[in-house]
Amino acid sequence: MNIAAATLTEKYAQDPVGEQKYTKELGQDEFLELMMQQLKHQDPMKPMDNGEFLGQMAQFSTVAGIEAMEESMKDLAQTYSVGQTLQSAQLVGQEVLIESPSLTLDEEGTTGGRFDLGASSSDVKLNILNASGAQVRQIDLGEFKAGRHDFTWNGNDGDGDRLPAGKYTANIVSGNGETYQSATVLSARIVDSVEFGSNGKTTLNTTLGDTLTLDDVRQIRKQQ
User: What is the distance between the alpha carbons of residues 123 and 37, in angstroms, rounded to a whole number?
Assistant: First the structure.
């Protein structure tokens, strides 16, 4: 590098003694000034090659393009965060389905949820377990195609007697009469409030005390 170019480099790279401000990175104006000084003070016997000059310009354009793209990505992320916040706030009071086998049985009425089948089955069974893990009811749901389906439990045991209110677990299996496999059970929750963390993470609090993230939500639907 010639003397003029070195002088300009030192101007923007070193911390001068005194009150002068300096920048550690070359901006577009500084880069162009440096290039003009290189052209002005180049050796007439060995002028700068056009390819070298264009290469330096292309390199700077690439860096400038990356910086612009980074700023655009930051703006996009901020816009997405704001949109997610607004959407999350609208979930308050809504019913969401999450992947959970837990059911809540009240003093009266029914309870239930949904289940996902990866393949069609000729024999789907619903097993209800109490808080101790003991099976208190088995219901033959019948034949279902692959996909998502609803199930309902009236709260009675196999003898038709009403079981106590409380927490129960739904275990759904599908098979062909010989072999069975568990299906994914989805249960409903009502969103009571939404919290927005300083790290940008959104959490949903339900009326049953669950703390969920948006990734936990499998479906949003009107309360039934």
Answer: 83
189: nearest Cα among 154, 149, 223: 223
Residue 35: other Cβ atoms inside 10 A: 17
Tokens of residue 84, six digits? 């997610």
Tokens read off for 112 = 């239930």
Q: Would you state the torsion angle of the CA atoms of residues 23, 26, 31, 35, taken in this order, to the nearest 10 degrees?
A: 90
Burial (0-12, 13-18, 19+ Cβ within 10 Å), 95: middle
**Which domains occur in the chain, in start order?**
3-88 (no CATH), 99-188 (2.60.40.4070)
- 208: amino acid identity, one letter: L
Q: Residue 99 above 50 pLDDT?
A: yes
Task: Indicate the length of the chain as a whole number.
Answer: 224
Grade residue 83 by pLDDT with cuts at 50, 70 and 90.
low
Residues β-bridged to residue 186: 99, 114
**Smallest Cα–Cα separation from 175: which of 127, 142, 149?**
142
What pTM was computed for the model?
A: 0.57
